Request: fold
Amino acid sequence: MKPFSAPSPFSLVIFGASGNLAKLKIYPALYVLALKKRFPGDYAIVGFARTEMAEAEFRKFVEGAVRAEIPEVNEKILESFLSRVHYAGGRYDNKEDFSGLAKKLWSLERKWNCSVRLAYLSVPPMVFSQVLENMFAGGVHDKKIPFRCIVEKPVGHDLKSFEAVQAQLLGFFKNEEIYLLDHYLGKEAVRNVYYLRFANPVFERLFKNSLIHHVEIAAMESLGLEGRTGYFDHTGTLRDMFQSHLLMMASLLTMLIKESEDTIRESRLNALKQLYLPPAADLNDIILQGQYTKGKTHGETVIGYREEDDIPDNSRANTYVALKLLSREFRWQGVPFYLRSGKRMGKKETRISIQFREPHVVGEGGAPNRMDVILQGEAGMRLHLQTKIGGTTPAFRPLILEDPLVCMGDCLPEHGLLLLEAIHGKQTWFLTPDEVRASWRIVDPLQHHLEKEDTPLHLYPAGGNGPQEAVEWAAKDGVKWMA
Ligand code: BG6
Reply:
């Protein structure tokens, strides 16, 4: 089968081209696509940012970003890729700078027949509307060429601001031009949560409330802010990680499996809408927040959150959140879902763990069955069973069936795969506005609660497993974190 690639010439404009996301994720992903020969002969990648930079300097910047993530590059391919990289600096509120960008695009595309223009918006929310307006006013969006506007999550800051962003987007673009991106949906491992169920009906028999005690969905990171202080201090972990990534994983696990790929978005949305906050007199019983202090990760001392540059000494931003949810989906009714995510934890791991109910006959050493699907970190699948050890009385030891869940086929970095899909006009693994709405509906009241001065913010040392209070919080429900 022909590998998935961009079939004909395209241009991609990256707004926020000198930012962290572009540096860490987008440029390395684009290089990998070039390396794997997924680009046509003619294409252009044009960075746009406020920083004044000559084109050569920008190419150096992109080169540095690629080399930092991919230690062994193919020099020839990197050189050829960089020759397609261009820069057009300017102000987001200046129409003239956008006209300059449009001219640049035309002069590049003049030599070939451009089949699609894409704009990747990785810019702070306050300049978002200016970028949209000027894309039109300056002629970057041109009716003669198919267009895709890709917007990174979190889209908006809450439901209200999302509606404002969405209204602006719709003021300029048609639905089929808007691509709301959650990069977790570009991860093979995350998509596999759905496909594991699809391809293994045996799991479907096991995934039901009469058998399951609880589910844990964890996204732990050992990294801290990686220079994104301004963004993060206003956002926090609940909005940054739960609003899309964790809720999407929960919906992929609980959505109804249907035959056709065309219904994936609809089923994901339905599952998301079925998630709800358990009724509780006190919201502290269903959500808990923390913030890291000085500690050690991978043997190195790291500073606490409030000591990071540009973070106020009294910041109450959460870097850890644990949340309890329920689903109305008939097979999952009554099963508690514990979602948690933290920065500066002991290790990077993204995992779904399903703990089954206690065994009928418990002998010495017996423990409930459990299934782990580890999506990032040491990716793999583990089924925790029990086997009898020899002797006249039943006593058990754990039997763990394990296989690494390694992508072995056509594996592309998530931003690369999503970009190719956007080029093809495939929206299946992009968020629908209704999904974003449904997520904000869950997150908004929680965020409001966490921001209250009297809501506790538990401190935890960097490099550990989060706040001790989170362990006790889960223990009240008879739940023990699974790693
Ligand atoms: C991003 C968040 O969406 O996901 C970051 O903004 C976070 O704060 C990142 O670090 C985690 O992504 P990944 O792919 O490393 O799990």
About this structure: The chain has a mean pLDDT of 94. The CA atoms of residues 156 and 164 lie 8 Å apart. The pocket of 6-O-phosphono-beta-D-glucopyranose is lined by residues 221, 240, 350, 376 (CB under 6 Å).
